[in-house]
Specification:
alpha+beta; Glutaredoxin
Amino acid sequence: MKNIFIEYPKCSTCKKAKNWLEENNISFEERNIVEETPTVQELNEWIEKSGMDIKKWFNTSGVKYRELNLKEKLVSMTYQDKIKLLASDGMIIKRPLLIYSNGVFIGFNEDRWKKLNR
C-alpha cells in the first residue's frame, strides 16, 4: 500500500510534516484535503484503522469549527452524522493525515511518525 499524505497546502504543520517525510525518504501520494475531501467510506475505514475516537478527527482550532459551533453540536450528534459532517468539508478535519499500511496518523507528531522508519 502506498502512503497517502492528506494536507491543506497553506497549513504550516502540513508543510512541516511534508518536509519531514521528504527528509526521511518516505514516499507518499499527496492529496489536498479541500480539493479532494475524504469520503464517508474512507473516513469510516481510516477512523477504525487509527484506533482514535472520532472527536479527535475534528480540527478544533479551525475557523469552521468555531463558526459552526461544533463544540456544542457534536455532543448530541450520532456517529454517522459526525462522519457525514467531516466528509462535507475538508477544513473541518484535523490535518495532516498520513494513511500508511499499518495505520493512520492524525496531526503531525515527529516522535510518532518516526515509527514509519522502523
